Here is the input.
Amino acid sequence: MIIFEKVAKKFGSIVALDEVSFTVEKGEFVFLTGPSGAGKTTVIKLLLGEYLASAGEIEISGEKLNRFPKNKLYLWRRKLGVVFQDYKLFSDRTVAENVALPLEIRKMAAGEIASRTRETLELVGLAERASLFPSQLSGGELQRTSLARAVITAPEVLLADEPTGNLDPRTSEEMIKLFREVNKAGTTVLMATHNQGIVDSFKTRVIELARGKVVRDEKEGKYQSKCQASNAQGQKEKDD
Here is the structure.
């Protein structure tokens, strides 16, 4: 479970988040949406401990972030898998080596690392690309590599910050389907995106931010984009 309780974040006189509160239950898939500058990335970086909240509390699975000393943040981050828009892969490592890195950091046995890396690459459809380097991959393959690295440790929560931002529509849809598969396996997913087409295509919960505030929080099947709402109103007026 993720809990934001009246969380604020300021950068000098700039208010990035203004008393934001929401709860994401274990196993949920939630889109965090809104225009550029709404505060989506700030939420992700607060969850990662890259930023400290100016006020309020952040909690994951019963543990509060503000109680973690800086030198223990790595323990907090072990709960999380993260997928970034710019992939953040090591150019001098192969696909398999990039994906295996989190297990190597945890000093897992070599045999277990090899087995889990192979299984994870099969999950994202990259088993045949294991020995290639990032420069040899397409954008979709790079993002799938990033996803594989994020989920290989079986994190409680998967965070994604604009993971389809550099992808074409078809590849974006394929990526979201992979995220849904990860979610169905039990991982909680919080995905920040401004891609309204993706949000509208996958009927799930949406938390919408605007100017650092939550302006909409609607459950599965009830979300309606502003464009859809406008069209519906126009059709109603026409029918009347």
User: Anything to note?
Assistant: Helices lie at 40-48, 73-77, 95-105, 110-123, 139-151, 169-184, 196-201, 226-239. Residues 63 and 76 are 9 Å apart (CA to CA). The radius of gyration is 19 Å. Residues 223-240 have pLDDT under 50 and may be disordered.
